Automatic annotation (TrEMBL):
One of its GO terms (cellular component) is cytoplasm. The keyword RNA-binding does not apply. It comes from Aquabacter spiritensis. Residues 3-330 form the Sulfatase N-terminal domain. The lineage of its organism: Bacteria, Pseudomonadati, Pseudomonadota, Alphaproteobacteria, Hyphomicrobiales. Pfam families: Sulfatase. This is Arylsulfatase A-like enzyme.
Length: 454
């Protein structure tokens, strides 16, 4: 029988907010535990810094440029090729607990056999959520406290199917640590705001060369006036939310072990995109390609051992994670997928691509009087694309200034060198390469099939 599959997907978790990725005090012992026995992908990147586009890419192997999902929520046609259909056709019983955020219509009963598809958005009706940066402790009895409840239900699904004659697939798609930044005790008081320092790229206003969409979000969210103590409180709660998720990771690993199925179950931990959390003086996310938004945690437990264990240092795209899972199960990729399996032993990626933003014009100037606490219109407006190598990142936008960052000398992306006359040749080379990727719907030109001349 094929191996079982467990996917764990916290929403909006930064790559650097886990101990195994270098966070100094968060103590994510269960994510670390998974990394210790499996494979931690050091350089993993999302196809988009927005929820629906990223998740759709994960399940289709296509970039937003091709699959067409560019807003936060997903509206992908479930009849089109996707990993869930492949799993169902292979005999997997499929469960979802949490937000689907990918497909149009009701997914339970169509792409999942059991589960609960629930999305809380930004909890905009919570009485303590007034400003974009707000955070609070959550009443354990609150309707918004769903992380443990979803885990309970998913664990019951695992117990039900662990010894059946069909393999199971279950995905835990958590709300945490997405804003509104809130979690119940004891998680909301684990961390003291005084433990946190501002990032090196924190700023109250625009720097030379700043993209317009970031300037607009800082003003529209009123985070130009965000109190520093409130930001540090949000950081503390955000870490608490991650610890809440981390405890669920431990519960899932433990039940798989106790049922004696851990050695026949693939586990993939990933997040769809990151979070500003104070970088550049803001919170939340926008359609831009800063490291805090586009770089993500990705950890795999492969019981077959085909994927080398330890730290995978090569560049990886999130869609490669699902491609690897399918490969380990002996299953094909969705038709048209551009993802690469880490178990296939092919040449490593030397660059990653991403794109984002609705095909709507970003305003030329901030909208007077507009105050929004979530990254709603016009925040997601304006398409853009990114090409990132180990050393450089270039970003082009339809109606915004370009960006070019020296990631070795400037890892916090404080200086946009797009207009640096000393880098004209390099910029042209990177722009040409990015244009070629866009012509190929994001895929590498070298991966295009050879035409049949007969």
């Amino acid at each position: 029988m094929r191996p079982n599959i467990v996917i764990i997907n916290p929403d909006q978790m930064r790559w650097d907010y886990a101990s195994c990725y270098g966070h100094p005090f968060i103590e994510t012992k269960n994510i670390d535990r998974l990394a210790a026995i499996g494979t931690r992908f050091e350089r993993a990147f999302s196809a988009s810094p927005m929820c629906g586009p990223s998740r759709t890419s994960f399940l289709t192997g296509k970039y937003p440029l091709e699959h067409g999902i560019r807003q936060y929520g997903g509206t992908y046609d479930p009849a089109l090729p996707n990993a869930l259909s492949i799993l169902g056709n292979a005999g997997y019983v499929r469960g979802l607990w949490g937000k689907d955020h990918c497909f149009k219509g009701d997914v339970i009963g169509r792409l999942y056999d059991e589960g609960e598809d629930i999305c809380l958005g930004i909890m905009s009706k919570h009485p303590l959520y007034i400003n974009a940066w707000d955070s609070a402790s959550l009443d354990p009895a609150s309707e918004w406290n769903i992380t443990k409840r979803l885990t309970d239900a998913g664990i019951n699904f695992i117990k039900k199917h662990a010894n059946s004659d069909r393999p199971f697939f279950v995905t835990f798609n958590y709300q945490d640590p997405h804003p509104f930044f809130t979690c119940p005790e004891p998680y909301s008081s684990i961390f003291n705001p005084d433990q946190f320092e501002l990032s090196e790229n924190f700023r109250r206003g625009p720097a030379v060369g700043e993209i317009r969409r970031l300037t607009h979000w800082r003003i529209h969210s009123n985070e130009i006036n965000m109190p520093i103590d409130s930001l540090k409180r949000a950081m503390a709660i955000y870490c608490g939310q991650i610890r809440y998720v981390d405890d669920q990771v431990g519960r899932i690993i433990d039940i798989l072990r106790d049922l004696n199925v851990l050695d026949n179950t693939i586990i993939l931990f990933w997040s769809d995109h990151g979070e500003f959390m104070g970088d550049f003086g803001v919170t939340h996310k926008i359609p831009a390609f800063f490291e805090c938004l586009i770089r993500v945690p990705l950890v795999l437990w492969d019981p077959t051992g085909r994927v080398p264990r330890g730290v995978h240092q090569e560049m990886t795209e999130l869609m490669d994670g699902m491609a690897t899972v399918l490969d380990l199960c002996g299953l094909p990729q969705p038709a048209g997928s551009h993802a690469r399996s880490a178990a296939a032993g092919g040449a490593p990626r030397t660059e990653v691509y991403a794109d984002a933003g609705m095909l709507v014009r970003q305003p030329a100037d901030p909208i007077p009087g507009l105050r929004i606490k979530g990254a709603m219109a016009p925040t997601p407006f304006g398409p853009g694309s990114m090409l990132r190598t180990r050393e450089w990142k270039i970003c082009l936008y339809a109606e915004d200034r370009g960006e070019l960052y020296d990631l070795q000398a400037d890892p916090f992306e404080t200086t946009n060198r797009f207009d640096d006359p000393e880098l004209v040749k390099l910029k042209l080379e990177l722009m040409q390469r990015l244009a070629k990727r866009m012509m190929c719907f994001g895929r590498m030109p070298e991966d295009l099939p050879v035409g049949d001349l007969k």
